[in-house]
Each structure stands twice: as structure tokens, then as C-alpha cells.
Amino acid sequence: MADIIRAKKSNYFVWALLVLLIIGLAGFGIRSVGGRLTTIGRVGDEEIPIDAFARILTRQMRDLSQRMGAPVGADQIRALGIDRSAIEEVTALAALTNEAKRLGISVSDERLARAITENPAFRGADGAFSKAAYEFVLEQNGLKPAEYEALLRDDLVRGLLQITVTDGIAPPDTAARAILAYLGEKRDVTLVILDESALPEPLPEPDEATLRAWYEAHKDAYRAPEKKRISYIWLSPEMLKDEVTVSEEEIRAAYDARADQFNKPERRVVERLVFKDRASAEKAKAALEAGERSFEDLVRAQGFSMKDVSLGEITRAGLDEKVADAVFAASEGAVVGPIEGPLGPALYRVTAILPRVETPLARVHDKLAEEIALEKARDRISEEMTPIEDLLAAGATLEEVARETPAALGTIDFTGRESEGIAAYNAFREKAIAVTRDDFPEIGELEDGGLFAIRLDEVIPPAPIPFEKVRDRVRADWRKAEVEKRLAPVAEEVRAALEKGGSAATIGRGKVLELTNLARGQPVPDAPPALPERIFALEAPGAVDSLPAEGAVYLVRLDRIIPFDPSTEENRRNMQDAREAIRLRVAQDAFTLFTDAARARAGISLDQRAIDAVISSIR
After folding, report:
1. What is the mean pLDDT of the chain?
2. Checking CA distances to 380, which of 155, 361, 475, 607 falls within 20 to 30 Å?
3. CB 278 within 8 A of CB 338
4. Three-state SS string across 182-215, please?
5. Is it the case that residue 112 has pLDDT exceeding 90?
6. How far is CA 181 from CA 32, 321, 567, 584, in A?
7. Any idea what DSSP says for residue 284?
8. Is the separation of the CB atoms in 392 and 386 below 8 Å?
């Protein structure tokens, strides 16, 4: 709830709640927890249904899996703190519902019905609400209408409570101005790059004694990190795909099943801005046509962001007939309307036209064949998992398992920096980092459906790399340091010239660049990453700084500070965006504090037995 803060009491706010609710219904899968457990506890007088906790838990697992780029298993719930996060969220929701009831906040049956009928997820082919579609979506998510409507009513009530708490929050402009004054400041500088070519005489070639002396003085830079010598078995779909047979019938069936992916109708990328009445919409359209306001200005004036009004990529079937006729007749960039739509009069902007796509089977034949082969290979791996687990459980070594199964045996000196072969898998890397000599090999699953097991053979401590193996690195490092040292007197001459106001024509040393309108954080061409920060640390025009790095010396003089100008059209929009971002952050923080206070006032009691039952039921 705290992430869904809007300034206006609009249908978009409600839609956001509905979308989150529908998405939250899908999970990894929950087995029946059995018994008569129905709640995991209560907040005040509000019970916390066991199903609500299960939905939030599985949604958080799914979200974390997407962020990590790897599946999160049931065995990682407690290790990653997902259970604590889910309890935090579900108790917050219960606290808000309890507080709303205490304050007497409710929604009417009419408002509930309107929220359901306006939800795009429940529309039929004609674009209107369909009872059949409504019941089908709920059935797919394991809900009965009464259950869903109770959940939705609570969500709508919490939405009203959130609006009550956050509506009207308007931080002063001081914060936005201060942030933009800092971020929006730009600078003009003169940059002088001194490299080896600026030395008064060529750098001599170092002899063996010089390089060895450098090596001894900087030995810590030439040490091999600690390594874990790990043996492993590995079975991946890629290893088995050539052993399975894929028929032409299977390829055709896969193509037909994904026909909507390979053959797409003409589409448009569309933005829709809804108005409260037709007069407001027509007035906005007139201002747009007269060049007085941009579409973005109209969106902000309605209290929305561009994300709020985006419909994304859409086909004719996704729009009402009148809207579709106008939108699909428009050119790219055109704004059409106002047209009466499901939410009222609206303007529609076409931001891109995507032509019809037709992909014949011949073009994707080999790709589909490989995908089917890999899927069949995954099935084979699933069949091999039990025999491998049985062998390991019986005390077989990895070498013995590799001889008796299709799994491949390998070894790796693992430092954590490797990224090829089996070390490219996050699951393997996590296991390799944690493995100890006391651990027995256990089956783990890889992201592509493969399996593996590992054994730590020995830990190889950090050790110096012999000089002979790093001689070229030593030579390169010596040369960089020696160039920087010999450039020091040259740099002092250039610094003096810069401080006296010297120009590119008069400095006469190195590569001289005059850079204008540098923004804070903007990389400087041909310069080390640390230089931009040094530029913006200079306090006044005329100040000079130098930075030796990578066999060169970089000298920079601040020529001009260009303050943020709030009067330009672009910066006025930036000010509006900054105000809105700060308002949203303050509103979010305020609502979080309100939620915490409501939870503390009501009191929380939890049934750990029920919580454990839900966690153990995750599959």
C-alpha cells in the first residue's frame, strides 16, 4: 500500500490496487496446510487469514527471484528473510484495515461494483465487463467471488485511508530548489592531459633489477587470492539435448501454440489522458492544438505521471471500437479525441506505430526444435535426479556418481571471480562460496534446469605470484608510475600557466580541451572516472586541481559555474517533477509512520505454528 501514493482520488489509484491484488493471487504454489488453521494471528480485532500470508509470501519469493535472476527456493525463505518481510507486510495491511474500521471508514456496494466492472482484467471481447471473464479469472486464481470481493473491499477501504492520510501533503519548494540547484549546476573547465609524450626526454626501458625491485616493493599487488579447489558433478540440458529426438509434429505444435508471438497484428503504443467531463477535455485539446500546452503539460495538470497514462502496446481488439477507429487512423505522434471511453472522455496520443508481424515456421524452425530438445532434456534430468540423490545418500563419491550416471565430473579452483562454465550459474557460485570441508555433496538445481553437487577438496591460501608469471604486468605498472613521477615538474609548470589564465594556445604542453556545460556526474572524455567529482569540488572560477592516474596527469581549471536556471521551460518541468517526487516520498514516509503507529496501537499476536505450516507448505 505504501508504494501506491497518488495525489488525486482517481480511478488510476483504484486500478493500481486491483492490479496488485490480481498479481498477488498468483504464487509458486501452496500445498494444503491441513488441520483447522485459518489465521496466522491478529492485529487488534482484525484476523490475518492464512491464505493472505501465503499469497504475500509467494509473491515476495517471485519478486526476489526476478531481481536475483535465479529461482528462490522454499529452503531459502528464512535464510533470505522473506518470511519476516511477508509478516511485516501482512500485519501492516491488517493494521490498516483494523484502523479503518475503528475510524468507521467503509466503501459502498455501489463503489465495490464499480471497481470490479471497471477492471480491464474482467472485460470480454467487446471491451465491456463480462461476468464470465470475471468468474474465470477468479477461478484461475483459486478464489470465489465472495472471497475476492471481501479482499477488494478491504483494499478499497485501505486506499481511502491512505488518501485521507496523504492527501494535501505539499512540502515547500525549498527542498526541490536546493536539490536542483545542486544537481542542475553545470561547469565550464579547461582540461590538460599530460601523458608520456609530454616528458622532456623518452622514458628508458627498465632493466631486470629495476623490475624485480618494483615487484618486491609492491608484492601485495601480485598475490593470487585464496582459492577453493572444488570437485563437482554437473548435468545440464545442453549436455543432453543431442540425445533426444524432436519430431516435425512437435515443432508445428509449438509454433501453433505461440502463433500470437510469431504473427502479431498491427499495433500502436498509446497514451490515454482521461478528463472529468467533455468540456475539460475539449479545452485541453484546444490548448494543445494552439501550441499553448504540450501533452506532457496536460498530463501533469491532471495530477498524473507519464507512466500513469501509458496503455503500452495495444491492438485494435484492446480498444473500444470508436477509440480504435480514431487511434489506428492517426499518424505517429498525433493526439486524437476527446473520445468517450470506458473511463470517460479522453485524449489519446499515438507514440509509435508497430506494423503487422508475420514469422513463417521455416524462420523459427531450428530455434523451436532446440527449445523442445532442451525441454525434453530437462525432463531427462528430472528422471536422473533421484538415482543421483540415492547414490550420494548411500555414500558414493562424485567420481563414482559420474561413472554410473550421465553427469560430468569436473574440478575448479574457485575464487568467486570466475564467470564461465559452471561458475556462470548463481546457484553454483552461492554453494561454492558457502561450502566447507564438513559438507557432504548434495544435489542442487541450476537456473537452466540442470543439477550439480560439489565437494570441497582443499583451500589454497593466498600466495605471491612468481615474478616470471607477472613480468609484463610489473613492467606496465612500473612504466605508469615512472611516467607520473617524471611528469610532476611538467605538471607544476602547466598548473602555474593555468592559474595565470593560460589558454589552449599558450599552455603549449599536453592535450588541452575546453569543456563546456559539464553536468554533475557526467563522464569526462579520455579522463579517469574520479575526475568529474574533482571538478565539482573546485569552489570558484580560476581554481586548479591535478589528478595523476594510469600513467598520466590530468590538470583541470574551473572557468565558469553555470547555476541552475529555474526560468527555462525544461527546468520548470524539472522543478515540477522534483516537487512531485519529494511529495510522493514525504507522503510515503508519512503513511509508513501512520501504519507503524496503527500497528503498535492495535497490538499484534502471531501464531508461529500457523506461520511455520505455511512456510513448510511452499513447493
Report:
1. 84
2. 361
3. yes
4. HHCCEEEEEEEEECHHHCCCCCCCCCHHHHHHHH
5. no
6. 57, 48, 12, 20
7. H
8. no
- Render pLDDT for 213-263 as a digit per residue (tens, 0 to 9): 999 999 989 998 889 999 999 999 989 888 889 999 988 888 888 887 788
Q: Determine the 3-state secondary structure of 330 from DSSP.
A: coil
pTM of the model: 0.52
Residues 232 and 234: their CA atoms lie apart, in Å, by 6
Name the band, by pLDDT with cuts 50, 70 and 90, for residue 75: low
Secondary structure of residue 220 in the 3-state scheme? helix
Alpha helices (H) in 394-530, listed in sequence order? 398-404, 426-434, 471-499, 504-507
Torsion sign across C-alpha atoms 326, 331, 332, 336 = negative
Cα–Cα distance, 73 to 605 (Å, whole number):
28
Region 341-365: mean pLDDT is 84
Q: Residue 215: what pLDDT?
A: 94
Cα(81)–Cα(89) distance, integer angstroms = 13
**Cell numbers given for 169:** 501533503
Residue 241, number of CB atoms within 10 A of its CB = 20
For the chain, helix (H) and strand (E) counts, in that order, are 23, 19
Beta bridge partners of 560: 188
Q: Confidence class of residue 34 from pLDDT cuts 50, 70 and 90?
A: very low
How far is Cα 476 from Cα 482, in angstroms, rounded to an integer? 10
Model confidence at 47: pLDDT above 70: yes
Q: Lowest-confidence range among 148-157, 167-176, 273-282?
A: 167-176
Task: Measure Cα distances from 461 to 364, 415, 458, 489 in Å.
Answer: 50, 11, 10, 43
Q: What is the DSSP letter of 471?
A: H
Residue 520 CB neighbour total at 10 angstroms:
14
Buried b (16+ CB within 10 A) or exposed e, 407-436: beebebebeeebeeebbebebbbebbeebe
